[in-house]
Amino acid sequence: MQFYKILRQRKINEDTFCNLLDIQNYDYITGNNKNSFAIKYNPDTYNQLLNNSRVFKEYKSRAIQQLFVTNQKFLAILNFSDFFNMSMVSCLFAEDAENIYLEEYEELSLESVEDIVSRYGFNIKEVTYKTNDSKRTIVLQKNGVIGFDNGLTDTEYQKLLKFIDTLNFGLRVIDI
Q: β-strands 64-66, 2-9: how paired?
């Protein structure tokens, strides 16, 4: 599984931050919007990248924003799972280390997750999906890190890019 930290460039008229990532030979993927991207994530190498004074200066000047996934965003994305051609297979809550609260429900669904969030005020920590076609795993974490299996089909990969754009810019990027 490959992990990427989802970012977006808020200064849209500036050169893309990805040009600097190219110079640094840093692995990244770009969404359909050039200001929506995700860089290969490992906590140590990510910190090293940001400790580079040139990179950090450009990071700040282009107003790069890290994604943090709120409950509201998790639930909105779950509501559009069919659009992204994937299904939720697990959900973890920050306050439920043993994952016992979901066991009360007959099936894992958007409704069961919404119920736990509203009844107990829990925060969603991570959602794991399976793609509908190739059954590959995609994991979205609260800290804006996304992991995905190798072997996504071209269509699934394009949906993944749309998924990243939607996380960055909201539901308005979905062509429904």
A: antiparallel
Largest Cα span, the chain: 53
pLDDT tens digits, residue range 13-66?
A: 667 888 888 888 889 999 988 889 999 998 888 888 888 888 888 888 888 899
Residue 131, beta-bridge partner list: 86
In 18-172 the beta strands, taken as DSSP E runs, fall at 28-30, 36-40, 64-66, 86-93, 124-131, 137-141, 145-148
What's the predicted TM-score (pTM) here?
Answer: 0.90
CA distance 8 to 32: 12
Decide: residue 121, CB within 10 A, 0-12 exposed, 13-18 middle, 19+ buried. Answer: exposed
Q: DSSP for 134-145?
A: T--EEEEETTSE
